[in-house]
């Protein structure tokens, strides 16, 4: 049975409201989990830094420095999340989601800088190993592994579709790896007294941190530079558009990413003059959303130019054969 216009609009409004409520609930859950991670890491940071200085362990100090970067990243992520949820206005017509991308880029660059410093200190420590207390180092690194494991579980769900949270999530994964490395170093030092292992583990941690941060830098840069998403081939999009009846050519095509899960597309198409434009636009937008995940779509349709005819062909046949009246 056909639905009235009022019923269609009512259903669309209900769907839109449900999507908004779901997005709001997800943002609230994400914020609560980020705050919980911030509190746990803040408490552990103090304990690990004091133990690292007391025991003389460079690996623990390196991990404490990494956690300090995590605390800064969490604070920046919470701030960016708050700004990103603000509605669009006359100046920010797409909203403020790019704040999260900027935060992800800042977090990853800071992480690389800290890891570089840790790596330099580790190389110095390898040349001149210093005495390290293995047992306190083992206890603190074990506690750190537990806390980082909890944080990984808290943020894993949101890391798939939020680049900002993914950056913090990688911080936690790197922390967990640091804790494992510190545990291994503590065991080796406690059992065999090999002090150089502390510097070697710190160097491996630094390399792992840099390796995990580089993809976030690349993805953030691509979004800020408004590159087409890596999983969308503009050639395939153009082929999909021209496959519809009535579309003759794609004159211009722009695809870019506004935020992690928001893709925009703008295109100028040449269509037949007798094509039903409103219906065609609806079909094209639905296909782009389904096949390529676009959320913002702007299509400009222009009619194909008719070929210029010879003046004789444009003239009326009767006018050509009828005799002209002479004055």
- Report the order of strands and helices: HHHHHHHEEHEHH
Fraction of helical residues: 55-70%
CATH class of the largest domain: Mainly Alpha
Mean pLDDT: 78
In angstroms, what separates the terminal alpha carbons?
69 Å
Assign the structural class, choosing from mainly alpha, mainly beta, alpha/beta, alpha+beta, or little secondary structure: mainly alpha
Beta-strand fraction estimate: 5-15%
CATH superfamily of the largest domain: Cation efflux protein transmembrane domain
Global outline = elongated
CATH topology of the largest domain: Alpha-lytic protease prodomain-like
Biggest sheet, spatial arrangement of strands: 1-2-3
Q: Would you identify the regions where 5 or more consecutive residues have pLDDT less than 50? A: 1-22
Main beta-sheet strand count, sense and barrel state: 3 strands, mixed
Question: How many strand units?
Answer: 3
Protein described:
The structure is a single chain. The model is unreliable at 1-22 (pLDDT under 50). Strands 1-2-3 form a three-stranded mixed sheet. The protein folds into two domains: 27-224, Alpha-lytic protease prodomain-like (Up-down Bundle), CATH 1.20.1510; 234-303, Cation efflux protein, cytoplasmic domain (Alpha-Beta Plaits, 2-Layer Sandwich). By secondary structure, it is mostly helical. The protein is built from ten helices and three strands; from the N terminus they run αααααααββαβαα. Residues 34-225 form the Cation efflux protein transmembrane domain. It comes from Aliterella atlantica CENA595. The chain crosses the membrane at residues 34-54, 60-80, 101-120, 132-156, 168-193, 199-217. Belongs to the cation diffusion facilitator (CDF) transporter (TC 2.A.4) family. SLC30A subfamily. It is found in: Membrane.
């Amino acid at each position: 049975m056909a639905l009235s216009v009022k019923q269609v609009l009512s259903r669309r409004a209900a769907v839109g409201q449900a999507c908004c409520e779901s997005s709001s609930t997800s943002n609230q859950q994400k914020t609560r989990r980020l705050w919980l991670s911030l509190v746990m890491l803040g408490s552990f940071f103090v304990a690990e830094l004091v133990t690292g200085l007391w025991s003389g362990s460079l690996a623990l100090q390196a991990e404490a420095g990494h956690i300090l970067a995590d605390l800064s990243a969490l604070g920046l992520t919470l701030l960016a999340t708050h700004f990103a949820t603000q509605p669009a206005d006359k100046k920010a017509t797409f909203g403020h989601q790019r704040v999260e991308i900027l935060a992800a880029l800042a977090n990853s660059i800071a992480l690389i800088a800290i890891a570089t410093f840790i790596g330099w200190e580790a190389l110095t420590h390898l040349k001149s190993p210093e005495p390290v207390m293995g047992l306190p180092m083992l206890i603190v690194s074990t506690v750190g592994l537990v806390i980082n494991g909890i944080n990984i579980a808290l943020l894993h769900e949101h890391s798939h579709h939020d680049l900002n949270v993914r950056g913090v999530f990688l911080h936690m994964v790197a922390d967990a790896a640091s804790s494992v490395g510190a545990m291994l170093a503590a065991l080796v030092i406690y059992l065999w007294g090999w002090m150089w292992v502390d510097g070697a583990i710190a160097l491996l941690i630094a390399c792992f941190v840099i390796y995990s941060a580089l993809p976030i830098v690349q993805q953030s840069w691509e979004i800020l530079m408004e590159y087409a998403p890596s999983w969308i081939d503009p050639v395939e999009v153009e082929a999909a558009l021209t496959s519809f009846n009535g579309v003759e050519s794609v004159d211009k095509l722009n695809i870019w990413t506004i935020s992690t899960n928001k893709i925009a597309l703008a295109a100028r198409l040449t269509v037949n003059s007798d094509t039903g434009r409103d219906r065609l636009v609806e079909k094209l937008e639905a296909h782009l959303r389904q096949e390529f995940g676009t959320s913002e779509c702007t299509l400009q349709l222009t009619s194909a130019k008719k070929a210029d005819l010879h003046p004789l062909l444009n003239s009326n046949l009767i006018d050509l054969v009828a005799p002209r009246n002479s004055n």
